[in-house]
């Protein structure tokens, strides 16, 4: 059962979540996909600016950063390491493996166990870590038995190379199948105010205390653009549409960790202030209605 609106109002000031039960993170995270070059294919053109954004995120209170081996073919992880080492004690860097990039416009699931192991080793090196706090399977590869992919993650965990395991882009059925074999600390799915097609997964995560990392939390900028469906409520609150979109996610469930991505210091500051927003019951009802199919 999902939590009710009353629960959400009660939970509104709870801005941290204990990932995997033992890693408290500020629930407004940061997505590091955009700390890369064009098409997320290589290093950022303006490396100093990317380093500055990563440092600013942490200065503003971000303690959960999402990246992947495939973001810039490793460049995102390299930028994070250069910007943030020695890492603050409370910083969790979550990375992923399981998608390869044969060309800039291609993201192809690749879940062979030996590849997942290799990518974990490369991420450890690039990030300069002895252990990855959260290692997410970017996609379940349909060409490889799921049990082999989960088995590779379990092996890395038992060897101490990764602390917690997460999944990405999964259904409730896939999550439950995985949970028969491994302990899943997080699920990362596309979710925002206007695209709630994985509502059932979020409710399931809420029920089981699994972190739900919401990717595309501001719909690739659509929710901040002119004519945003949340513009009127933003005006009422003296906030920006992006802040409303992010604050709604924080209110939606105490397990949600939105990971907005930005390459702009101004937007980053704006986004981090979203955790201060408190909605009235009427505003929450209007925002909730935006995601429901009409009729
Ligand atoms: N698991 C997966 O398969 C998967 C897939 C996609 C993404 N992700 C993760 O999700 C994270 C977020 O995804 P995303 O960056 O594509 O989407 P997003 O966070 O929904 O939107 C980012 C876009 O919104 C703009 N933006 C951000 N803050 C803004 C603000 N305050 N005002 C106006 N515009 C703003 C950004 O432009 P500016 O740079 O100009 O701010 C950028 O164009 C990624 O970094 C990645 O970690 C995961």
UniProtKB/TrEMBL annotation:
Q: Which residues form the NADP-dependent oxidoreductase domain?
A: 27-290
Q: Does the keyword Oxidoreductase apply?
A: yes
Q: Which Gene3D superfamilies match?
A: NADP-dependent oxidoreductase domain (3.20.20.100)
Any one of the GO CC terms? cytoplasm
* Keyword Oxidoreductase part of the UniProt annotation: yes
Q: Which domain of life is it from?
A: Bacteria
Supply the alphabetized keyword list.
Oxidoreductase
Q: Which SUPFAM superfamilies match?
A: NAD(P)-linked oxidoreductase
What GO molecular function annotations does the UniProt record carry, in alphabetical order?
oxidoreductase activity
What's this protein's name? Aldo/keto reductase
Name the lineage: Bacteria, Bacillati, Actinomycetota, Actinomycetes, Kitasatosporales
């Amino acid at each position: 059962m999902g939590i009710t609106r009353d629960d959400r109002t009660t939970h509104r000031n709870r801005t941290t979540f204990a990932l995997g039960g033992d890693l408290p993170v500020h629930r407004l995270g940061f997505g590091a996909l955009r700390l890369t070059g064009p098409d997320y294919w290589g290093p950022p053109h303006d490396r100093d600016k990317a380093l500055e954004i990563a440092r600013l995120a942490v200065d503003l209170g971000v303690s959960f950063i999402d990246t992947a081996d495939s973001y810039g073919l490793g460049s995102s992880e390299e930028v994070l390491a250069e910007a943030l080492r020695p890492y603050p004690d409370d910083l969790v860097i979550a990375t992923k493996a399981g998608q390869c990039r044969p060309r800039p416009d291609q993201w192809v699931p690749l879940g062979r166990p030996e590849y997942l192991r290799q990518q974990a080793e490369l991420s450890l090196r690039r990030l300069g870590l002895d252990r990855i706090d959260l290692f997410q399977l970017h996609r379940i590869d349909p060409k490889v038995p799921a049990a082999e992919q989960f088995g590779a993650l379990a092996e890395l965990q038992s060897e101490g190379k990764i602390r917690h395991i997460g999944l990405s882009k999964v259904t409730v059925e896939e999550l439950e199948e995985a949970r028969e074999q491994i302990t899943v600390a997080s699920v990362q799915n596309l979710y925002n105010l206007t695209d709630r097609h994985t509502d059932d997964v979020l409710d399931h995560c809420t029920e089981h205390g699994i972190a739900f990392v919401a990717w595309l939390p501001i719909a690739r900028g659509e929710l901040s653009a002119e004519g945003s469906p949340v513009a009127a409520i933003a005006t009422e609150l003296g906030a920006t549409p992006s802040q409303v979109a992010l604050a709604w996610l924080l209110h939606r469930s105490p397990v949600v960790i939105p990971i907005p991505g930005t390459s702009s210091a101004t937007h980053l500051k704006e986004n981090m202030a979203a955790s201060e927003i408190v909605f009235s019951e009427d505003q929450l009802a209007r925002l909730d209605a935006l995601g429901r199919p009409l009729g």
